[in-house]
Amino acid sequence: MNEISTFSALHENIKTVLEKPSLFAEKITRFSAGGLGACAYSDDITVGELARSWQHKEYHIKCPHCGAEAYITQWAGKVGSGGYWEIKAYCPRCGKEYRYDMYAAGNACRAHWTALRKILQEERESIRIETARLNKRDGDQSLFPFDKYKVWVQRDDSPHGLANMHVCHLQDGWEIKIFIQNVELWQVVNYGNRSKDDGFVDVVMMVKDWFRSPTTMPGRVGTNQEAAQYEWEACNDD
Ligand SMILES: [Zn+2]
Question: Which of 32, 55, 154, 163 would be a feasible disulfide site paired with 42, CB 3.0-4.6 Å?
Answer without folding.
Answer: 32
